[in-house]
Hints:
heterodimer; A: 428 residues; mainly alpha; 20 helices; B: 183 residues; alpha+beta; three-stranded mixed sheet; two-stranded antiparallel sheet; 8 helices; 5 strands; binds zinc ion
Amino acid sequence: MGVVILLVMAVGVAAMLTRKLPTAFALVLLAVVIAFLAGAPLTGKESVLDTVLQEGASALAATMIAILLGSWLGKLLEETGIAGTLVRKIVEFGGDRPVFVALGVLAVSALVGTVTGSAPAAMLAGLIGIPAMIAVGIPKVTAAGTVLMGIAVGVPFELPVWQFFSTALDLPIGTVRGFMVKLFPFALVAAVAYVLVESRRRGVEHTWPLKAARTRPSRADRRRRLGDAPWYALLTPAVPLVLALGLDVAIIPSLLGGVLYALVTTTRPREMNRRLLRTLYGGFEVAAPPIALFVAIGILLAAVKLPGAVDALQPLVKAVSPQNTVLFILVFTLLVPLCLFRGPLNVFGLGAGIAGVLVATGIYPAVAVLGMTASYNQVFGVSDPTSTQTVWSAQYAGVSPHQVMVRTLPYVWAVAFGGLCVTAFTEL
Amino acid sequence: MNDDHDLDLAVRLLAGTPTHEGRDPALLGQWARTASEFGRRMTVRHQTVRVVERDGGLEAGLFARYRSRPPVVEVYADTVARAERLVAERGWRHWFPEGSVRAAALAHEQAHAWLHHAPVRAEFKRALGHTALRLGRRRLYAYVAGADEIAAHAYAQTACGLGRSPLLLTEALAAAVSFESEN
Lengths: 428, 183
Ligand SMILES: [Zn+2]
């Protein structure tokens, strides 16, 4: 039966790869099929309807709220001009040294990456950051990659991701945080190396473009016209981080703290209510795709954790899972490309299910699975040419997502290798 | 009259450059004037840069591109040819003599290369006079995004003896090309 389950998973991957089915729908279908194959009854204890669909759907509720709050804060950063002001200051101070601008945008991306991660962060930092880098002479592929690598520096400290790993792998937040702190230096070094090395290799680029940049007044433009955010408001992205990392505050209150800080530092009391509601509802829109995905992942996790599924999969997975430290690092480093192109190790896809299998069957300790998935997440978040943030950044810079993948993959592959080494030597 | 229109084009270019959203148009006008003046007066010591002719510029939306590593200027022959035809169609020959588009493209990119020299950059920033930080009597001048583009066009206009700013060509050609692709 285990073989059949794996075959079903393969079909699911094929459906996602060929875009026959959106990832979230494919995962729910997979979960239901796996549950039936595992011999689960329709209703009652450990059943398809009550356990997998009912309980699974809300299993990651805390993650969903965290994502929503992150998106809310992201909307506030945009509307209050905090993100735009940060980029403008960087260009004013260092515009004639393109590397300085790139490093600055990298830092801004990292900061907003800790707040929302993925696509919203890319837009927040990239909307002004990417054209600003291109305007000072950074080549387009480097510019797109810089925003993505920057977000990946923030991702180890992305609070909704902590919540996700904590719930999905059943680990205390402190343990998740402990590993992320060790993963962070690898992401940071790789990102700074990316900017420095690529700037050295590609130099600067200037064009005489056919189309002169022209003002197209948009709604966002008019809002930004309201002026610069005050300097102390620029600290907003760091607030949730200081609360959660420094003061040990739980994740949802930490994010709420960020929302409050952004509000009181930028908004007159009369306008607070309207701004809060407007940005909150805007946040829902931004958070819709990841929340849909987390509903589906919760359902898939519930399915692979059914006793029938665990029993069927355990001997198979155990037979192919390397136990030796060096082999663990080697095998999982070589498997890195499988988290690209909606592949089976994509953490926000079937990869979450596989992580669930590894934990439920007890093949690796949950902390080791955390290390593995978090390492893969560093690759997926930057280089996957099918993920929203990579597609958006590349296209906004005027290059193809594949170009960005080729240029960034060596760096993030090294980060994954580093993360897997830490995992193997400390947790296995 | 024509100078006013050229200046207006330069201001619009600045206004459309990121980081200038919501800036006072008067300030943008002052920067555009200063940058044009700086570009006109620039004495560019030409580097020996390899020049290559390429195709596909209309598709990529480029007249020319300068890359510093290794130093190379790419001139897009199809865009240049199309621009020459446009000059003839509009009766702008007295402003843009035969062959001047390619010369302007080269001069534009040479100007970019020149503007990367540290002393030139510092002088340019001082001329623009935008303050990033003031500490007592010392002040740190800010970089003005888009200003080097205006200086590069002004330099090309002077160096190639053009009657109008190459920005006029940019705008007219962009309009013509998008009109053709829509019909
Ligand atoms: Zn230029």
